[in-house]
Amino acid sequence: MKKYGYSIGLAALSALVLIGYVAAASADRKPPYRLTTEEGDAAVMNGFVLDGLGSRLTADGGRERTGSRFLSAPFHDLMEPDHYYSERNELILAHRSFMRGHRMDDSYYRDDATVIGADLDDERSTIDVRLLDRASGGVRELEVPIELPAGTKQSDFHSYNRSIVDVQLENGRIHLLVRGDYSPLTEGQRLWVYEDHIVDSASGERVGTVEVFRNAPETELPRETTVELIEEVRQMDASGIVMLNVKRLKHDDGTNQEQPSPPLLQEWRLVGYDYASGETWELPKAGMDRLKQGLEPRLHGGILYAFKEHIEKPVIHFLDPRSGEAAAEPLPLEESDIPQRSVRLQDGRIYDNFLAGKKPTVVVYDEASRRVLYRGSVEQADPRAEPVDYKYFSLNFYGK
Amino acid sequence: MKTNLIALLKLADLEIRRFRGILLGLMALVALIQLGGLSMVTRTRLSQIESQIERSGMTLAEFKLQNSGLSLLELLGELDGVTGVAIACCIVVVAAYTLIIWYRDWFGRASFAYRLLMLPHPRFLLYLSKLAAILTFVFSLFAWQIVIVAGQMLLYHVQIPHQLRIERTFIDTIRSTDLVIFIPVRLTEFLLVYGLGLVIVLLLFTTALLERSYRLKGLLGGLALSAAAFVLLVWLWAGAEDRGSFLYPTELLALFIGVLLVSAAAALWLGWRLLRGKVSV
What's A308's DSSP letter? Predict the structure, then answer.
């Protein structure tokens, strides 16, 4: 054996180091932070996680490491849970067969009885609609051909010029809201057209098409019209209305090449659309005046919320989306140590994620009573770990 | 059985000894680059901080309060490029030796392959001994990298005044650097990275043996087999990146592992067959 001393020694020493490493890695499996409940009921945090410093924390004491993946990174079933994408995770988990090959379809709708998925075909000329009956598990497929809107031609530069931005089921009718980016037949720049293609859910027959919005094409080069959909923040939930955030901007004309000035807002309006009646309206002045205080609009449960998220001390305004008048008293949120924060609206609750006393903190308010339902903060479980002071943890919804 | 095991040990020992100089050279090179590099970077940063403190009249503690100290990760970040080169050197040398380990027997002195093939035990032991030797090199370099990170942490503690230090655990240090690709902290990651590495070694072995058995045709066949396995693995990996694919990522992972296992089994079987009846001097 002495003869093989070098080889055995090399292998044994390496094995010893590796065993030590495995032991250290196993001991370090849990992140050195925890989300501690300071007040209220942690149950309202079900489905939510705080992600930060390589950790994923839940209010029930769950701690998990994130990151440090290379080869295995793409082999995870769940998509990144930010921006409510996690609701697709819920669909994937609940209806794996229905979602197979359709995880990235344009839009989904879900209620207690039905799930609807809609996607445009490769030519962007037919909407493929799939309906899942949740009780029986049966799947029906419909094809809805769509034409170019009147007065438009196919845009030369945008091959993916159409997408389905919202699906709703109202009174037995499927509403497929399609956003199109076209060229006008006459002179002018980009033309945004929003159309609601209505289909009878029982027969699959087209009932009609409503043109929800079309901008006047800009004819002067430095001017641009942007149209952004404001839909229900819970994208798959039923919502009777949607709104469009329409801004007309004047860009820098390029005379000062060293210091171009930011775009100038020339016109700003919010256009509402009611799926059931086909009615459209503009948000009246009272609502627009409120928004023009530097606030951003969001739609949830039929209420228009207006607040600026990334500041130390935001105030949430609750507006009627038709009259623009205040629907409830504004809710001032607690002051944060840094401007970075996030606010989520869900199930009649407001989730505020910010920094209080240097620590990442979550406060959950009951929207109706303004009562604090939960308050928790991130604590360092191991003094050798990186301190949490002034570190931002993002609040994500993973689904229940 | 026991005779075979002893023969395997002897053959593996022979292969490990033959690479001894190169392995120790590689270990010395990475240690020098990583430890020496860290020491130099640390000294430069400390002298910058000292002159900053002198100019402002602050104490070290006040400096830390304003500048959040000097972390090992920050220093290792400055070394990322050279660390990558050092590790790439090891990978390239070991990968090249995966082929050389066969060809040196054929083209070395006194037709050594002839003597090896005439030994009175199963020829497949040659294959296993070479595989054991390559795995020993890989895991020795893996372990050495762990020792170097421990050395870097020690160096950090010796060179950086405690007022400036930002403490981190050993595993956390590895997790937070690019080294985590080669020194995984997750079991699945370890199995995938080193499983893939093992299959590449087996495919290279098979290619070398096919070439020794059928010359040019064998070489082309071996390369085609390796390329097919590689393309299939990359396709499955890319498929998992594509979120619109028909199969779910976990299903693609199962297929990826399946392809790894089938490739490994095919390479081992082919190697056994070729060594038994085809390979000649």
Answer: -
Residue pLDDT, tens place only, A214-238: 998 888 878 889 999 999 998 899 9
Pair B173, B191 in one domain = no
CA dist A120 and B74 (Å) reads 48
By the 10 Å C-beta count (0-12 exposed, 13-18 middle, 19+ buried), A35 is classed as: buried
Q: Counting every residue, how long is chain A?
A: 400
Using alpha carbons, select from A336, A328, A338 the residue that is nearest to residue A352.
A336
Query: How far apart, in whole angstroms, are the C-alpha atoms of residue B35 and residue A364?
Result: 49
Same domain as B29, residue B13: yes
Q: Which of B184, B211, B237 is the last residue of a domain?
A: B184
Residue count of chain B, please give it: 281
Residue B34, token pair as written in the block: 């990583």
- The answer to whether A49 and A57 have CB atoms below 8 angstroms apart is yes
Out of A20, A70, A79, closest to residue B189 by CB = A70
Domain boundary, last residue among B184, B213, B228: B184
Q: What proportions of chain B, in percent to the nearest 5, are helix, strand and coil?
A: 85, 0, 15
Tell whether A3 lies on the interface with B, counting CB pairs under 8 A: yes
Top-confidence residue, B153 or A262:
B153
Yes or no: say if B140 and A10 are a contact pair by the CB < 8 Å rule: yes
B7 and B128 fall within a common domain: yes
Nearest CA in chain B to A68: B175
Quick one: B47 and B135 in the same domain? yes
Residues in chain A within 8 Å Cβ distance of B259:
none
Contacts of B162 (CB under 8 A, 6+ apart): none
Whether A101 sits inside 8 A of B246 (CB atoms) is: yes
How many domains in chain B? 2
A75 closest CA partner among B194, B251, B260: B251
**Nearest-CB residue to B17 (from A7, A14, A69):** A7
State whether B168 and B263 are in the same domain. Answer: no
Please, which residues have CB within 8 angstroms of residue B237's CB and are 6 or more apart in sequence?
A71, A74, B252, B256
Q: Which two tokens stand for residue B271?
A: 């190697």
Q: What is the span of the domain harbouring residue B70? A: 1-184
Interface of A with B in 23-82 (CB under 8 A): 24-25, 27-28, 32, 54, 65, 67-72, 74-77, 79
Same-domain check for residues B116 and B226 = no
Q: Which of A1, A4, A13, A14 to mutate to probe the B interface, most B CBs <10 Å?
A: A14
CB contact under 8 A, B13 and A103: no
CB crowding B77-100: b at 16 or more within 10 Å, else e: ebbeebbeebbeebeebbeebbeb
Q: Say which of A27, A68, A74 has its CB closest to residue B186.
A: A68
- Closest B-chain CA to A72: B189
Residue range A71-126, pLDDT digits in tens: 888 887 665 554 445 678 888 888 999 999 998 899 999 999 999 999 999 888 89
Spatial separation of the C-alpha atoms in residues A130 and B117, rounded to whole Å: 65
CB distance A69–B186 less than 8 Å?
Answer: yes
Please write the tens of the pLDDT for every residue from A173-217.
Answer: 999 999 998 888 887 788 899 999 999 999 999 999 999 999 988
| Domain match, B196 and B105 both | no
Residues B145 and B192 in one domain: no
CA dist., res. A201 & res. A114, Å (int): 11
Q: Which two tokens stand for residue B158?
A: 């010796």
**How confident is the model over B243-257, as pLDDT tens digits?**
788 998 889 999 999
Question: Could you tell me the residue ranges of all domains in chain A?
Answer: 1-30, 79-281
Terminal Cα distance for chain B, rounded: 27
Q: Which contiguous run of DSSP H or E holds residue B119?
A: none
